[in-house]
Write a structure and sequence with these properties.
298 residues, hydrolase, GH43_arabinanases, glycosidase, Glycoside hydrolase
């Protein structure tokens, strides 16, 4: 199988799972040629150096009775209690709203099959980009975005998950709205004349070596995709969350996540540019110091 370079790979919302025992990285993401239309499924790519990849390998293809047919977005894969759980966003057929559902597999190569009964995010909310977070007591949460199209000022929310990751416990909590950060800018939309809108995308949790809980999340600066960082004052998922004044990355890239390369380097994965079909994965080295993050190179 021919190797595929990052510059040849169309992918959004990249999510990397390093497997030390294999010396391999598994790269998931939104892999449909046109993610804004009918969904085909999700693929994974496998590589050893973050430069070239084998694949694509199909890891999810919906059955005929699947509850969604459009907008298959942002698959994240987390190992939890000896199985692999995929958190992915789909647009439901029954109400045309986005929601994050949970799929499961015994292998990173799939196949992943539906685990939750549809999305675990609220049925009447337009929600996307859910990520799994395990708290200091070992309890699972989903952290996700409520889309600006419903609330104008996009939100990042959290709700407890049941132990088996099939449903939720209690009501969602709004952690913050996009406009609470100083770096995103508002935009207008013809569908909502006169209304200032702010985007929240792709929350991703990371605890530093000193125990500081950080969250990456994406928005826009003058219509250009960008990535920011928030810090939990309490060190818990419920915050309160304090926003960094400046974006971490603002060169038309975002929906980021952090992982450690096999040489120990802290790496940031984003997609850039933010235009279909030109989006590609980009991997940046990150310096972590005193609970803060800084991009230091490719």
């Amino acid at each position: 199988m021919a190797m595929i370079k990052n510059t040849q790979l169309q992918i959004r919302d990249p999510f990397v799972v390093p497997v030390v025992e294999e010396g391999q990285y598994y790269l998931f993401g939104s892999t449909d040629t046109n993610i804004w239309g009918k969904g085909t499924g999700f693929n994974v790519y496998v590589g050893r150096d973050l430069l070239e990849w084998e694949g694509p390998y199909a890891v999810f293809r919906p059955e005929a009775d699947f509850y969604a047919e459009n907008n298959f977005w942002a698959p994240e894969v987390h190992k939890y209690e000896d199985r692999y759980y995929m958190f992915a966003t789909f647009r439901r057929k029954d109400n045309d709203l986005l929601g994050t559902a949970v799929l499961v597999s015994d292998s990173l190569l799939g196949p992943f099959t539906p685990h939750s009964e549809g999305p675990v995010t609220p049925k009447d909310w337009c929600s996307l980009d859910g990520t799994l977070f395990i708290d200091e007591e070992g309890l699972p949460w989903i952290v996700f975005c409520r889309e600006w199209q419903q609330v104008a000022d996009g939100q990042v929310c959290a709700v407890r998950l049941t132990k088996e990751l099939k449903g939720t416990i209690g009501e969602p909590v709004v952690l913050f709205s996009a406009s609470q950060a100083s770096w995103p800018t508002a935009f207008q939309h013809t569908r909502y004349p006169g209304q200032d809108n702010y985007v929240t995308d792709g929350p991703s949790m990371y605890r530093t070596g000193t125990g500081v809980l950080l969250m990456l999340w994406a928005s826009f600066i003058n219509n250009t995709y960008a990535l920011g960082v928030a810090t939990s004052v309490s060190g818990t998922v419920l915050g309160p969350w304090v926003q960094e004044e400046e974006a971490l990355f603002r060169s038309d890239g975002g929906h980021g996540m952090l992982f450690h390369a096999f040489d120990g380097s802290l790496m940031l994965a984003v997609h850039t540019p933010n235009q279909t079909p030109n989006e590609q994965p980009l991997f940046l080295k990150i310096e972590e110091m005193a609970g803060k993050l800084r991009v230091i190179g490719m």
